[in-house]
TrEMBL record:
Residues 301-353 form the HAMP domain. PROSITE patterns: HAMP (PS50885). The chain crosses the membrane at residues 280-300. It comes from Paenibacillus phytorum. The lineage of its organism: Bacteria, Bacillati, Bacillota, Bacilli, Bacillales. Keywords: Cell membrane, Kinase, Membrane, Phosphoprotein, Transferase, Transmembrane, Transmembrane helix. The keyword Glycosyltransferase does not apply. The keyword Membrane applies. Its main location: membrane. It is a multi-pass membrane protein. SMART domains: HAMP (SM00304). This is HAMP domain-containing protein. It is found in: Cell membrane.
Length: 581
């Protein structure tokens, strides 16, 4: 349920984030374009004002009165010179009045007469060195004079009537000086700021910038420090982070003054409503996610978890575990189901235990019956051997047989345990084969059983009937054979013991018939030794355990005893037991 909620939320958040990012990018680009256009328009206004000043200066320098002011004045009297000065000054004042919003100071210098006329309140004096120092032909910030600390400078431009030589004086030139103060720039910056979101200022590297009158001093200082480390192009626009906030910085160069008009716009403030709506959406998604998760948790605890408990209980019953019980902590409809399930499981467990006890008692009786059938079979063979050896006056064989027979009955009469370790069974087989070796000098045996297999618990007298058949029906029916080999291994979760002989063996059809008889009930014509052994291992280890008969690698007959164990590890290191007579 929680995964489904997450899957539903992820596409919504991805789509909204993408659309929000697109909106941010579009608005950001439009803001950049709009800001650079407004800044370029402001720069063009400033350049337009300056061009008007320059056009007036060039036109004014050709005025007859101005030319007359720079003339030789040989035939003019004092009154005429005064009238000329008055006319020139009146025209400069009139021009400055026309451009009231852009006050300009004009000064006319006559190099011929060493005189100066200005529209300023303070009278200007002619200074040859002053003119030579400032005749650059370009607008300059300051005129080279020392300015008191804290006082701003003005922009200056000097024009001479010498054609093509604006940076030199010939000695009789007419020079017109035009200058305006930083207040003109500030007025335009204030007007620009009043109609927008920015905080503009006029900047030139190495000079004190001209700020608008309501500018943030700290912010402007940080930005100027940033600009001092940059190489500004004619037009520049970047997003700069200052005071832990993002600002859009735009700069446009004034080609006449060689200064940059810089504007700083707070992006976070402009894009704040979009960011607020985005954050509000994310908060809503978080709240919806929390509500969805809480609902799914409640649904899981009150519905899904009880259903899972009931399913696990039914699965346990299906596997045969009828002791399972379900604890009901809540008091709801599921508690009734749990109660009925526990009652059902308890009743089934009682019935199964009764049936199982009956089956166990029947199985124990069958095991005891099968073992009782095997013990007399072996006893008859041993007594027959003793009689034969006694008739043959073979006292050593009689003593050995009697000793081994005594050890055998001591082993088989311990009825407190119905199983024994394979190691105990192998010892019994060694005693038996030693006896047979006394009877038949051709017999040789080899025992190769891994140590891990020696610890396996098997039914008592598991190997004896099979080894006895190998001796009687294998070695005993051939004059050239005499080898019996007992080996074992653990692999793929099964224990396997192989009893091989080199006797005449059986045909393939006979082997198939014998294997088939092992799966049928005991018949009168069938010997009970092998059939009983097969039944005992089935009772002991289950239906996947059995005897199997096939052709031996020695050329004779092989009997395989196979039973299932819990561990499937293979072990390849085997102890080796060999007997020769």
């Amino acid at each position: 349920m929680n995964g489904l909620i997450i899957i539903l939320f992820i596409p919504i958040i991805i789509v909204f984030t993408y659309s929000n990012r697109i909106a941010f990018d579009v608005i950001g680009k439009e803001l950049q374009v709009s800001n650079i256009k407004q800044l370029s328009f402001l720069s063009s206004q400033i350049d337009s004002r300056i061009n008007q000043m320059m056009d007036f200066v060039m036109t004014f320098s050709k005025d007859p009165n101005v030319q007359k002011f720079n003339g030789l004045n040989i035939w003019e009297d004092r009154y005429d010179r005064m009238q000329t000065r008055y006319a020139v000054q009146e025209k400069m004042v009139l021009q400055s009045g026309i451009m009231n919003i852009w006050p300009v100071k004009y000064t006319v210098y006559s190099q011929q007469n060493k005189e100066a006329i200005s529209n300023a309140i303070r009278t200007s004096e002619y200074d040859e060195n002053y003119l030579k120092r400032n005749m650059t032909g370009k607008w300059t910030y300051g005129d080279g004079e020392t300015v008191p600390k804290g006082d701003p400078k003005s922009f200056y431009w000097f024009y001479t009537d010498s054609f093509g030589q604006q940076d030199t004086l010939s000695g009789s030139n007419l020079v017109v000086e035009a200058s305006f103060g930083h207040e003109n720039i500030q007025n335009m910056l204030d007007t620009y700021k009043a109609g927008g979101q920015g905080d503009p200022f006029f900047y030139h590297k190495g000079e004190t910038p001209i700020l608008n009158r309501s500018a943030s001093t700290q912010l402007s200082s940080d930005l100027i420090h940033y600009l001092d480390g940059q190489s500004l192009a004619d037009t520049m626009q970047k997003v700069v982070r200052l005071e832990n906030k993002n600002y859009l910085v735009s700069a446009v160069k004034s080609p006449l003054l060689d200064w940059h008009l810089v504007d700083i716009v707070p992006l976070d403030q402009i894009l704040g409503p979009i960011s607020f709506s985005r954050n509000l959406f994310y908060l809503s998604m978080v709240l919806l996610f929390v509500v969805g998760i809480s609902s799914s948790v409640l649904l899981y605890r009150n519905v899904q978890r009880p259903i899972r408990k009931l399913i696990r209980g039914l699965q346990s019953v299906q596997r045969g575990d009828f002791s399972v019980r379900i604890n009901a902590n809540a008091h709801n409809e599921f508690s009734f189901l749990f109660y009925r399930f526990n009652d059902m499981s308890q009743q089934i467990q009682g019935l199964i235990e009764n049936v199982l006890n009956e089956r166990l008692r029947a199985r124990d009786a069958t095991l005891k019956q099968l073992q009782a059938q095997i013990n007399p079979h072996f006893l008859y063979n041993c007594l027959g051997y003793i009689v034969n050896m006694a008739q043959m006056k073979n006292e050593e064989a009689v003593v050995s047989m009697a000793y081994n027979l005594s050890a055998y009955y001591r082993y088989t009469t311990r009825m407190e345990r119905e199983t024994a370790s394979l190691d105990e069974e192998i010892r019994l087989i060694i005693n038996y084969l030693d006896i047979q070796k006394l009877r038949n000098g051709r017999i040789e045996y080899h025992i190769d059983i891994p140590e891990e297999l020696m610890n396996q618990q098997v039914p008592r007298l598991l190997l004896q009937p099979i080894v006895e058949n190998a001796v009687i029906h294998g070695v005993g029916k051939s004059y050239s054979s005499g080898e019996i080999r007992i080996s074992g291994e653990i692999s793929n979760g099964y224990c396997r013991i192989y009893i091989d002989d080199d006797g005449p063996g059986m045909t393939e059809d006979q082997q198939k018939a014998l294997n088939h008889k092992m799966r049928e009930p005991l018949q009168e014509k069938m010997g009970c030794g092998l059939w009983n052994t097969n039944q005992r291992i089935i009772h002991q280890f289950g239906d996947k355990s059995y005897l199997y008969f096939t052709k031996s690698l020695l050329g004779g007959f092989r009997t395989e005893i196979i039973w299932e164990i819990s561990s499937g590890e293979e072990h390849r290191h085997h102890p080796f037991i060999q007997g020769d007579m």
